[in-house]
C-alpha cells in the first residue's frame, strides 16, 4: 500500500477556482440587479398585477436568490476543501440542507398561491 495521504487539491487549482467563482458571483449579481430593476418597472407600469400575485413573484425571486447564494457558498467551501473526503462531506451537508430548504419553499409558495387564488375569486 502507498503511504500517501488523501488526494489534495493543488493550490494553483484552488486559486483558479476562486477567481472563477468570484467572476460568476459578479455576473450573477449584475444579472439579479438588472432583473430587480426590470421587475420594478413592470410593477409600476402594470395596474393589473394584484398585490397577491406580486407577493408570490417577490417570494419566488427571494427564493431564487437564496438558492443561488447557497450554491455560491457551496462552491466556495468546495474550493477550500483540503481533500476529496472533505469535499464529499461538504456536498452531503449542502444536499441535505437544500432539500429541507426546497421543501419549505414549496410549501410557502403553495400557500401563497392558494391564498392569491382565493382572493382572486369573485365574491
Layout of secondary structure:
Blueprint: H1 11-45, H2 51-80, H3 84-120
Helix pairs in contact: 1-2, 2-3
How much is the radius of gyration in Å? 21 Å
- How many E-type strands? 0
> By helix and strand content, what is the structural category?
mainly alpha
Order of helices and strands: HHH
Q: What share of the residues lie within helices? A: over 70%
Q: How far apart, in Å, are the first and last alpha carbons?
A: 77 Å
Please indicate the percent range of residues in DSSP E strands (runs of 2 or more).
under 5%
- Taken from the alpha-carbon principal axes, the silhouette is elongated
Largest sheet: none
Task: Walk me through what this model shows.
By secondary structure, the protein is mainly α. The chain has one domain. It is 83% helix and 0% strand. It contains 3 helices and no strands. The termini are far apart.
List keywords for this structure.
123 residues; 83% helix; mainly alpha; 3 helices
Brief description of this entry?
The protein has 123 residues and is mainly alpha-helical. It contains three helices and no strands.
Amino acid at each position: 500500500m502507498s503511504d500517501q495521504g488523501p488526494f489534495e487539491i493543488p493550490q494553483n487549482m484552488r486559486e483558479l477556482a476562486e477567481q472563477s467563482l468570484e467572476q460568476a458571483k459578479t455576473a450573477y449579481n449584475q444579472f439579479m440587479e438588472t432583473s430587480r430593476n426590470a421587475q420594478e418597472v413592470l410593477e409600476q407600469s402594470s395596474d393589473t398585477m394584484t398585490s397577491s400575485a406580486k407577493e408570490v413573484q417577490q417570494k419566488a425571486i427571494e427564493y431564487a436568490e437564496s438558492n443561488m447564494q447557497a450554491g455560491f457558498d457551496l462552491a466556495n467551501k468546495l474550493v477550500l476543501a483540503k481533500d476529496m473526503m472533505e469535499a464529499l462531506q461538504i456536498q452531503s451537508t449542502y444536499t441535505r440542507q437544500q432539500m429541507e430548504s426546497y421543501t419549505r419553499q414549496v410549501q410557502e409558495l403553495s400557500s401563497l398561491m392558494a391564498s392569491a387564488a382565493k382572493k382572486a375569486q369573485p365574491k
